[in-house]
C-alpha cells in the first residue's frame, strides 16, 4: 500500500529565536528614537533632581523627628515637582550643549581639511595653481563675471564666484603657503 498514515508536522521556527528577534527589533526601535540630545537631557535632569532631593533630605532631617511619613511624602513631592519643573530647562541646556559641540567638531574638521589641503599644495604645484586661481577669481569676482568685451562671434566666459567664507579660507591658505 502506498498510503501513509503517519503525518509529521514539525515546526519550522523556534519560539526562542522568535522571541529573541522581537527583542532585537524592539531594541533597534528604541535606539532609533534615542538621540544624543535626549540622553544628555535625561542625565542633566537626573543630576538636578538628585541634587534637590539630597538638599531636601538634609533639610527635613533636622525637623522630621516624629513625622517620618510626612517627610517621606514631602520628599516625593519635591522629587516629582523637580522633574516637572526642570525638564524643559534640562532639554534646552542639552540642545545648546549639542549645538555647541556640533559647531566645535565642524570647526575642527574644517581646520584639519585646511591642513591637509595645505600639505598637499606644498607637495603638488597643480593644487597650488588651483588655489591661486581660486583666490584671484575671488578677488576679481566683485568687478564682474563676463570676461570683458566679447563680441557676438566670440564665446563668453563666465567665471564662477566663490562664497565669501570659502574665498576667505582660500586667501588665508594661500597667504600661509607663500609666507612660509
Can you characterise this structure?
It contains five helices and no strands. The chain has helices at 15-33, 36-63, 68-123, 125-140, 164-179.
Task: Considering the chains and any ligands shown, give keywords for the structure.
0% strand, 180 residues
The biggest sheet amounts to: none
What fraction, in percent, of the residue positions are helical? over 70%
Strand content: under 5%
End-to-end Cα distance: 98 Å
Shape descriptor reads flat
Structural class: mainly alpha
Number of helices: 5
Low-pLDDT stretches = 145-159
Q: Could you give the order of the helices and strands?
A: HHHHH
Q: What is the number of strand segments?
A: 0
Mean pLDDT: 76
Gyration radius over CA: 34 Å
Amino acid at each position: 500500500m502506498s498510503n501513509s498514515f503517519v503525518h509529521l508536522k514539525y515546526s519550522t521556527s523556534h519560539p526562542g529565536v522568535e522571541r529573541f528577534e522581537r527583542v532585537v527589533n524592539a531594541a533597534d526601535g528604541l535606539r532609533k528614537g534615542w538621540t544624543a540630545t535626549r540622553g544628555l537631557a535625561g542625565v542633566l535632569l537626573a543630576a538636578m533632581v538628585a541634587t534637590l532631593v539630597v538638599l531636601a533630605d538634609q533639610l527635613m532631617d533636622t525637623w522630621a523627628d516624629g513625622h517620618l511619613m510626612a517627610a517621606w511624602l514631602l520628599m516625593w513631592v519635591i522629587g516629582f515637582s523637580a522633574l516637572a519643573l526642570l525638564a524643559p530647562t534640562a532639554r534646552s541646556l542639552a540642545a545648546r550643549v549639542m549645538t555647541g559641540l556640533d559647531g566645535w567638531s565642524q570647526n575642527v574638521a574644517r581646520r584639519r581639511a585646511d591642513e591637509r589641503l595645505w600639505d598637499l599644495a606644498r607637495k603638488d604645484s597643480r593644487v597650488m595653481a588651483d588655489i591661486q586661481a581660486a583666490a584671484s577669481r575671488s578677488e576679481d569676482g566683485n568687478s564682474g563675471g563676463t570676461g570683458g568685451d566679447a563680441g557676438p562671434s566670440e564665446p563668453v566666459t563666465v567665471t564662477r564666484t566663490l562664497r565669501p567664507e570659502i574665498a576667505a579660507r582660500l586667501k588665508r591658505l594661500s597667504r600661509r603657503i607663500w609666507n612660509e
